[in-house]
Design a protein that fits this description.
The complex is a heterodimer of chains A (288) and B (376). With 288 residues, chain A is α/β, with parallel strands linked by helices. Chain A is 17% helix and 30% strand. Chain A has two domains: 92 residues, Elongation Factor Tu (Ef-tu), domain 3 (Beta Barrel); 129 residues, Nucleotide-binding domain of ferredoxin-NADP reductase (FNR) module (Rossmann fold). Chain A contains six helices and 15 strands. In chain A, a hairpin with a 2-residue loop joins strand 13 and strand 14. The longest helix of chain A is centred in the C-terminal third of the chain and has 13 residues. In chain B, strand 10 and strand 11 form a beta hairpin. In chain B, helix 9 packs across helix 11 and helix 9 runs antiparallel to helix 13. Chain B has 376 residues and is of the alpha+beta class. Chain B folds into two domains: 226 residues, no CATH class; 131 residues, no CATH class. In chain B, the strands form four sheets. Chain B has a seven-stranded mixed β-sheet, with helices on both faces. In chain B, strands 7-6-13-12 form a four-stranded antiparallel β-sheet, with no helix packed on it. Chain B is built from 13 helices and 15 strands. Classes of the chains: A alpha/beta (288), B alpha+beta (376). Chains A and B meet through loops of A and strand 6, strand 7, strand 12, strand 13 and strand 14 of B.
Chain lengths: 288, 376
């Protein structure tokens, strides 16, 4: 088991907004408008000491443009470099998409809560992800592959808009070989697609769960999360064993700028990962 | 006559001419002294050269959407109550630098060291509610895990001269919030102003040093009683009240769909005024800029507001597109979720948000309306 407290390593206690510069060492195309950027800090001591927990994120800075909160998508146990899988969405991610190997980004982090799957030893795990919601869960998959015997059944339910938009497809085989079940769906098929068509929550209909022993981890569009929770609750999985990762506007990662609040929580600090019982009083309040 | 003891924790009587000496002592000790002064018919806080510049003899008339300074001709320096500004601008300025970066010869971005101005500040005439507001912001910017560098540099070296409030305005409700009219601990020196004399409580070693060489008198029973009476009267003369403040987190957070939110949304203009005058509102936004040459970049922090349309924008949409949702966020945060986040209310009862609301929205009335709606 990797020992990390989840505390931000790339943060100065007395200058928490000061970025640490890192170099892009490799770029891997994942899907249209989605690529994985491998980063390495120039400061070797910082790189060696940089630990994160699955589900945490970094603030990536494009100087002159701004920061974006991006989940870490690499293996917690791989030191020496960190990966972020980025979808082009706004100014900052567009600028990152125009970068090449050797270009420099600012990094602060890691921030936020993590998937508490370490407490789920012996349990069945259902990972339900949509689109760009899979990268924040990839560190979980790495961990499970390294420590497969610690868990019961592991099921990945994943969906994307089209077959082309599915991410990490080259890794599915390795996941399956490690004893991870994977069920994939797309919103719209194409001429070659022979798999399922439909939204992620429908995948629950093909899966038999043991509600007493199942943990759900979900990340994706909020509408998908909503229905994943619905399906999980319908199968009597208790709220405290359903974990969701939320997205909000974030400027600091410190619980300081105020933007990411939902109810009493700062999503950047108390989240991004919440158990559903924490969110229950707030999720059905519109525009909270 | 035996010498009067000036020790930390003691109280002495300070004749009024001593105030100028107090100011001079602070300047001699290297403080940049900031104090209330009249500018554009309102009290603002800025560099104070002499006590002559204080708004002596002025009071303010305040009500929802109403502020007037009135010369009443009395002999007191600190009866003006506060204007729109608060002291937060000095520890948490409306604009400040977060980081600056420069490209090196290889064209790679490097972080430049931030320089923080280390001149210690003396805040000359902080009302009890504003002292409480500073202490609320301490919890936000000085965490166990990190400290805001500018806030930390200025706050830890600052001298606070508090002045107990004997003349609350029409929108004040600090008595309800437990922050005034008498200052809670946290000051270096605290004055209670009577017509010809101050009662001075020494709160720290810095406060004791500042009093050195100033002629003081022992406190008399008469003086202590007059100060006590003044504070009791002030408590009774609050223009507003907010009963059962401790129950508000429960009341507000469990009534997120109250009809009153729709009602207030009809009046609120989402102008952000309340959040800009609030001495505890801390939300900020990061602004990035790059030089024309592309060789240097800056990150700056600016006050933001939960009423701004882009405050809650993420790709895919605005999480709070309506005024109803923004007002609800502001009120439930200030009086409710602030407790679980920071262990205190976000409101100190200064009344600025009421006075400076162009739509005359009164938080105490809105909360009362929600309470009545729930009880009905």
């Amino acid at each position: 088991m990797i020992q990390t407290t989840g505390k931000p390593h790339a943060i100065l206690q007395f200058a928490p907004m000061q970025p640490f510069m890192a170099e892009i060492t490799e770029i891997v195309h994942e899907a249209p408008n989605v690529s994985t950027y491998w980063l390495r800090f120039f400061d070797k001591g910082l790189q060696d000491g940089f630990h994160f927990k699955a589900g945490q994120f970094n603030m990536l800075l494009v100087p002159g443009l701004g920061e974006a909160a991006i989940s870490i998508s690499s293996d917690m146990e791989e030191l020496g470099r960190i990966a972020h899988t980025v979808r082009i969405a706004g100014n900052v991610t567009s600028a990152i998409s125009r970068m090449s190997v050797g270009d420099v980004l600012g990094v602060r982090g890691p921030f936020g809560s993590w998937w508490c799957f370490e407490d789920c030893i012996g349990k069945d795990i259902v990972i339900a992800a949509g689109g760009i919601g899979l990268p924040p869960l990839r560190p979980v998959l790495y961990y499970i592959m390294h420590h497969r015997r610690e868990f019961g059944r592991v099921i990945v339910l994943y969906g994307a808009r089209t077959p082309n938009d599915l991410q990490f497809t080259r890794e599915y085989k390795a996941w399956q070989e490690a004893g991870i079940e994977i069920d994939v769906t797309v919103d719209r098929g194409d001429d070659t697609w022979t798999g399922r068509v439909g939204v992620v929550p429908i995948l629950f209909y093909n899966t038999r769960l043991d509600p007493k022993n199942t943990v759900i981890l979900t990340c994706g569009p909020e509408i998908m999360i909503r229905f994943v929770i619905f399906e999980a609750l319908a199968r009597r999985v208790p709220p405290e064993r359903i974990f969701v990762s939320l997205e909000r506007n974030m400027k600091c990662g410190l619980g300081s700028c105020g933007h990411c609040q939902i109810g009493p929580y700062f999503v950047c600090k108390d989240g991004p990962i919440f158990s559903f019982d924490q969110l229950q009083p707030y999720v059905n309040v519109e525009e909270l | 006559m035996a010498e009067v003891q000036t020790t930390v924790g003691s109280a002495v009587a300070l004749p009024k001419p001593g105030l100028e000496k107090l100011l001079a002592n602070l300047q001699k000790m290297g403080y940049q002294v900031l104090g209330p002064q009249i500018q554009d018919e309102a009290v603002v806080y800025k560099a104070l050269k002499s006590v002559i510049d204080l708004p002596k003899g002025y009071i303010s008339q305040q009500d929802a959407g109403f502020y007037r300074l009135v010369f009443s001709g009395h002999r007191r320096y600190f009866d003006h109550t506060h204007g729109a500004q608060s002291w937060k601008q000095f520890f948490f300025p409306s604009f400040s630098e977060l980081a600056s970066l420069k490209r090196d010869e290889a064209g790679r971005w490097q972080v430049e060291e931030n320089e923080v101005d280390l001149t210690p500040l003396a805040l000359f005439g902080v009302s009890p509610c504003d002292l409480a507001a500073i202490q609320v912001q301490d919890r936000i910017f000085l965490r166990e895990e990190w400290k805001d560098p500018l806030y930390w540099a200025r706050r830890q070296s600052a001298f606070i001269l508090a002045v107990n409030c004997l003349h609350p305005s029409g929108t004040c409700f600090c008595a309800s919030m437990g922050t005034g009219p008498k200052a809670n601990p946290g000051f270096d020196l605290c004055l209670t102003e009577l017509d010809d004399i101050f009662l001075a409580e020494i709160g720290s070693e810095a406060g004791r040093l500042v009093m050195e060489g100033i002629s003081v008198l022992p406190t008399s029973a008469f003086l202590l009683q007059a100060a006590q009476k003044g504070l009791e009267d002030a408590s009774l003369n609050m223009g507003r009240s907010l009963p059962d403040e401790k129950e508000l987190p429960e009341l507000l957070l469990s009534n997120l769909e109250a009809k009153q939110w729709d009602d207030v949304a009809q009046r609120c203009m989402s102008c952000t005024s309340c959040t800009q005058v609030c001495p505890t509102c801390f939300c900020w936004d990061a602004h990035d800029s790059i030089s024309l040459s592309g060789q240097s970049a800056r990150r700056e922090r600016a006050w933001d507001s939960c009423f701004n349309p882009d405050y809650n924008y993420i790709v895919g949409g605005n999480m709070r597109p309506t005024t109803r949702s923004r007002y609800r966020q502001w009120l439930t945060h200030k009086f409710g979720s602030w407790y679980p986040q920071f262990g205190t209310s976000g409101c100190v009862g200064c009344g600025r948000c009421i006075t400076w609301c162009p739509a005359k929205i009164d938080v105490t009335a809105e909360i009362q309306a929600i309470r009545e709606e729930v009880q009905a």
